[in-house]
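Box 3.1 A note on notation
Throughout this textbook, protein chains are presented in two layers. The first layer is the amino acid sequence; the second is a token string describing backbone geometry. Keep the layers aligned when reading.
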Amino acid sequence: MNNIRYLLIAENPGYTPSQRAQLLRDLRGLLPVLNVRVASRHLEILVRGVDVEDARRRVEEAVGRVYAAIDVTNEDALGSGDIGRFVALFNSERFWEAHAEIEPAWRRSGDRSLQGLILMSAAFVKLQEGAPDKFVLLAGEALRLLEDAPERIGCIDIPKLREQLARSLVSKSPFSIACP
């Protein structure tokens, strides 16, 4: 049971990424928490080696309703390469899961465009972790990798995506990907 890991998605009662360190300390007083990410409407709490129902109960007592508990023990089995699912997760600010959705496809293909999408998602994870300097670094690298991308990846309009990401480098805020 020690290597079992769950990602708990809980409602965010108002935390900001700047409060992440304190939230992480508080939650570690209750559970073996590996990481916490703070999105605008939810918290992502990565726990290890616990009974998922007990973890859910403790998190709900501490911060609010848990609306998903995802077994992430085997990260390689999480993604199917579905671009539509990637977009849905990205637009829900579930950036870690978005990157995990397409990482297996990138590993199989080595496609630099997919790597750019992965790094873009990873950049926003860094914002959720309160590390804007790392966000800038990863987002810049994602932009570079997407320079030579095809006009579309699945439903994603890459030139528009690059514009949105460039604006996010300035605003340091997430955006939604429009997919027809």
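The domain at 5-71 is CATH 3.30.70.100 (Alpha-Beta Plaits). The radius of gyration is 16 Å.
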